[in-house]
């Protein structure tokens, strides 16, 4: 629940209300309320503005997640898949793009302007295994480059994950991180 709330919007709202109360109190001669409203309201409002300028919105789902997929996720998802899903579906601050550091380490982001942009995500089942599909707009990174990095992607996102890369259209790349069942010991 709290992951879906923008701290920037909260700061702007609370700071704006307190600042307005401070100005009204000043106009009516209420020194105590004036001081509290302006003393707290203006800094919170400025903090909200600063956060808003550095805000990265959550990535939306391209399809609703069914209860069966939620159950499959709870049974099979790796800690890495869960961490990625949680990170990209919440507000982030101070980052240029979702997964920007990961893409850079994988060699898929030579320049900020050429970085693939994560637009949507999807949770599904592929051959009975849980899959987290990251849907990128990738006009500057070729299909061949993505294919060359497939093995590195699998190693980077950890054990228990198989990467499957598809190209639904010319500028879009879908990266499926599929759970590989681990042998029982």
TrEMBL record:
Residue intervals passing through the bilayer:
7-27
Tell me the keywords, alphabetical order: Membrane, Transmembrane, Transmembrane helix
Pfam families, A to Z: DUF2854
What InterPro entries has UniProt attached to this entry? Answer: DUF2854 (IPR021275)
Origin: domain of life? Bacteria
Keyword Transmembrane helix found = yes
Name by which UniProt lists this protein: DUF2854 domain-containing protein
């Amino acid at each position: 629940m709290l992951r879906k709330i923008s701290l920037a919007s909260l700061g702007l709202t609370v700071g704006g209300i307190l600042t307005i109360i401070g100005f009204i109190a000043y106009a009516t001669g209420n020194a105590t309320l004036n001081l509290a409203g302006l003393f707290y309201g203006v800094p919170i409002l400025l903090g909200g503005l600063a956060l808003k300028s550095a805000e990265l919105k959550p990535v939306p789902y391209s399809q609703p997640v069914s209860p069966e997929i939620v159950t499959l996720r709870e049974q099979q998802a790796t800690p890495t898949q869960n961490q990625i899903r949680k990170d990209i579906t919440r507000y982030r601050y101070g980052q240029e793009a979702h997964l920007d550091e990961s893409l850079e380490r994988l060699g898929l982001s030579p320049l900020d302007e050429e970085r693939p942009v994560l637009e949507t995500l999807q949770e599904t089942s592929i051959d009975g295994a849980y899959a987290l599909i990251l849907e990128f707009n990738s006009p500057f990174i070729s299909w061949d480059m993505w294919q060359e990095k497939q093995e590195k992607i699998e190693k980077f996102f950890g054990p228990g994950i198989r990467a499957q890369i598809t190209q639904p259209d010319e500028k879009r790349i879908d990266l499926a991180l599929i759970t590989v069942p681990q042998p029982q010991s």
